[in-house]
Amino acid sequence: NKKKVALLCGGRSGEHEVSLVSANAIAGALDRERYDVLIIAIDRQGKWWLGEHAIARMQKGEEPYGDPVHLLPEPGRQGLIRLTAQGWEEIPVQIFFPVLHGPNGEDGTIQGLLELANVPYVGCGVLASACGMDKGIMKMLFSQAGLSQVPYQVVQRLQWEKESSSVIETLEESIGYPLFVKPANMGSSVGISKASNRQALQEAFAEALLYDNKVVVEKGVEAREIEVSVLGNNEVSASIPGEIVPCNDFYDYTAKYIDDRSRLLIPAPLTQEESEALQQMAIQAFKAIDGTGLARVDFFMDKKNGQIWINEINTLPGFTSISMYPKLWQSSGLGYSDLLHRLIELAEERHQEKQ
Ligand code: ADP
Ligand code: MG
Ligand code: MG
Predict the structure, then answer these.
(1) Is 107 marked active-site?
(2) The whole model's pTM is what?
(3) Which ipTM did the prediction report?
(4) In Å, what is the CA distance from 330 to each residue of 29, 33, 241, 326, 340?
(5) Does residue 220 carry a catalytic annotation?
(6) Which residue owns the Cα nearest ligand 1 atom 23?
(7) Would you call 74 a catalytic residue per the annotation?
(8) N or C: which end of the chain has fewer CB within 10 A?
């Protein structure tokens, strides 16, 4: 009596491609003794298409075959609907697994639809997803939880358009170069630049504003990048920490996905005390956003004095078999397939608690 798991991937997001790769990896690793896998590939227009071939077609920039499917925002259907020329059919699904990164997937929007439909789904709920996606809100919650962060400021588009010179002055005086400029709601380093002078700062704003009306500006630090995977609902566990050694000036899109010279150190070379402190902070961060299921929590560690700052939380981290999230669990004793099984169990537990 296998359960049917639907992997939601692609999506209307700057991280569309990355998501397709993650979903292919998950489809390949789900335990087929336990689960039947159904791929739902969401195209850049937001239409939902069924089947593995849909990923391949979308990767080539072509429209998938057949008719799109729909999830209705009303409880009780236990699956998808497909409208065809002959009428409509129901396609049963027991569990949804959003493998979507960035806006319209990692930010609570899909989670809202899944809540309305009252179906179990993997990962964080609406609130945690939204808070984890928005770097401005995330930082407020982290500071509320007493987690230390680098100095930062949130700037709205209107503020920038009306009075950029006073915004620049404030940033230069209160934070100083180098500055990192980021769209508040994005991931995979899309839209992020490092600025070391005024002209670069103006260009960085223009770039970040392509993706969001809200921009987060931070003090640039010379730091090691340490990441911790967390897993659980009410009881949360943290993996051993791993370290990223980017091949570029910072861990930008190219260093993440294109150039294969970035290295992952697992475990990160840290003292026992440092590792435990990071694990504790990761769990605190997860609780601060009201997380459930999974998240990867990323830190900076000052290269000179070892000071730790939290950078961000990612509620749907990269999930290929060579991604940090599953690799950290692998090294902590939980293999990729078992991890997927555990995530599905957590989704079902959370769903049952709500009924
Ligand atoms: P994303 O959600 O897109 O991953 P991050 O905030 O993690 O955004 O930034 C991406 C990368 O940019 C980080 O992994 C790091 O390499 C670099 N970076 C971001 N903020 C800073 C900072 N304040 N100081 C130094 N490097 C930074
Ligand atoms: Mg992120
Ligand atoms: Mg990041």
Answers:
(1) no
(2) 0.96
(3) 0.99
(4) 13, 21, 12, 6, 12
(5) no
(6) 220
(7) no
(8) N
